Amino acid sequence: MARAVLPLNNTKIEKSKPKETEYNLSDGEGLNLRIKPSGSKIWLFNYVSPITKKRTNLKIGKYPEISLADARLKRAEYRTLLAKGIDPQAQKKEQEQVEEKKLENQFYSIAEKWKEKKATEIEPLTLKKNWRRLEIYVFPTLGKMPVIDILPSVVIEMLEPLNKQGKGDTLKRIIRLINEILNYAVNYGLLPFNPCLNVNAVFNFGKNENNLEHISLKYF
After folding, report:
1. Going by C-beta distance under 8 Å and a sequence separation of 6 or more, which residues neighbour residue 27?
2. Which of 52, 58, 127, 195 fits 45 for a cystine, CB–CB 3.0-4.6 Å?
3. Residue 108 C-alpha from the chain's centroid
4. Residue 63's beta-bridge partner residues?
5. pLDDT tens, residue order, the chain (220 aa)
6. What are phi and psi for residue 116, nearest 5 degrees?
7. What angle do CA 155, 131, 193 make, to 5 degrees?
8. Which domains occur in the chain, in start order?
9. Can you give the residue ranges of the Integrase DNA-binding domain (predicted)?
10. Residue 28 backbone phi and psi in degrees, to 5
């Protein structure tokens, strides 16, 4: 008969001391707190993989950054996955890959790649000015957005203040830059199509500003 495991409590965890070799404190149902000789304490979930049929440990995180209550919530989450035949570690890796892909496909990340390409095509000063325009008018809104989420309505709302100020020439430049970056994403298979190609049709550009954009293009 298996020996019953007494659940952990914060007092027991706090009083646990490092030894010459690492050891585990068990909370039951696969949740263990590993005490390292260095004194660090790491939550692990021990389980049998439904895929490999082998026993393995999945790191949850360090204590006290991950509290006992939070570690138990993770255990419950992982046990639910196991009940469905899903390996928690495999799903965690898949989620990490999805998050990495999102970062790679953010507008700013793609703009940086576009910038590298443009550096071989246009004058450095022109590129510097264009990048500064993006920093002022575009990145604060679109920088962290995945390109797949950038719709005409988002771009139009972002640029409406420029439109109201009558800065038609600046508006044209910004729209052109946004479309160049989105077209770059399309050409490299990061976006199925550019939905913002015709956003300029929404705006009344008025008279040409003769390149006087009324913005500071100072560089620090």
Report:
1. 5, 7, 8, 33, 68, 71, 72, 75
2. 58
3. 12
4. 41
5. 456 778 999 999 999 999 999 999 999 999 999 999 999 999 999 999 999 999 999 999 999 999 999 999 999 999 999 999 999 999 998 888 877 777 778 999 999 999 999 999 999 999 999 999 999 999 999 999 999 999 999 999 999 999 999 899 999 999 999 999 999 999 988 899 999 999 999 998 765 444 444 444 443 3
6. -60, -40
7. 40
8. 10-85 (3.30.160.390), 106-202 (1.10.150.130)
9. 8-95
10. 90, 160
Q: What residues contact residue 220 under an 8 Å CB cut-off, 6+ apart?
A: none
- The answer, as to whether pTM is greater than 0.70, is no
Say how far apart CA 182 and CA 178 lie, in whole Å: 6
Other beta carbons within 10 angstroms of residue 8's beta carbon come to 19
CA distance 102 to 95: 11
